[in-house]
Amino acid sequence: MTRVTVSVSGSYDVLIGSGLLDSLGARCAAVHAPCKAALVCDSNVAPLYAQRAEQSLAAAGFDSLRFVFPAGEKSKNLETYTALQNFLAENRLSRSDIIVALGGGVTGDLAGFAAATYMRGIDFVQVPTTLLAMVDSSVGGKTAVDLPAGKNLVGAFHQPILVLCDPDTLATLPEEYFRDGCGEVVKYGLMSDAALFDSLAQAPIRSRLEAVIARCVEIKRDVVSVDEFDTGLRRILNLGHTFGHGIEAAANYTVSHGCAVAMGMAIITRAAAKLGCCPDAAVQRLEALLESCGLPTRAPVPAEAIFAAAMGDKKISAGRLHLVVPRDIGRCEILSVAPNEAMDWLKAGGAE
Ligand code: NAD
Ligand code: GLY
Prior knowledge:
Helix content is 45%, strand content 20%. It contains 13 helices and 11 strands.
């Protein structure tokens, strides 16, 4: 097992190791007195893992109550959030009770936001079961639900008291979602760890899950502990995301998040090379690694559509976009650019 400690407004451990799901109760008991635990999971994860989680919680003295919602991003909304809040209230959870989010990023974001706001905030535990949630969404305290106007528009920063990653749960994750998580893993290597990047090129992510997840969590920990509330350095985690979000929206969400981030990383790296900020070799290495993970490197939508959608992103402040630009494999910088410059970057990156 690997332990990564995150010290932000609160301090908590991210535990990564095979079989950890069965020690959920004992691990929770180490950070919180036994109490009621609302286990939140979606309709795919519940039949796979909820019973094991409940048995482990019960053995450690927790009284668990299960809340299940329909799987998918469409459920990450105020309606499900309200149903969850009512569930907590009807079951008389108090401020000293906890929520346990068992599932992917949708579950973690939804349950985390419910925890941030129920009775003005209760503790919660993240048990991520997708690669994306293990390396990204379960760590760092961003919680949110979507509005019809856009993703993650209603949310809060609320750190978990424990994150427990059991890579064995990834055995049941459909390949397309595993691949999406690989996009985020590649992002960490390109962003700040050339050794991680090289190791991904040498051996498949599946062959060393614990080590890869732990390294990604360490990198995220190092960023969020400097900038918990996303006012500066944390923007670096958006490498590939500015154009990636534009691609997702322009393609009417027919391109998955991980594939869009892969395309976004490839575009910004090609542009950086073309504009002389980054060696050409970095482009070849990135494209080869993305392709070996089954991820695309070219966008299926025109540059103008990506640009228009990217301009609607909530990450734009004072009319400027923050582009995270690779200087080489493992090294990036954040550039603040005017909208017309963003279009130049898109075109230079091969978006047509
Ligand atoms: P998800 O939670 O929808 O999970 C993807 C699919 O996999 C779902 O169908 C789910 O039911 C299924 N699933 C999950 N674990 C499984 C398992 N072990 N076995 C079988 N099926 C399983 O999506 P995701 O990709 O994990 O997360 C995407 C969400 O995360 C988005 O809403 C995004 O906005 C959010 N996110 C949040 C942050 C953050 O910092 N809070 C960061 C990145 C992404
Ligand atoms: N996933 C980006 C962040 O946590 O800031």
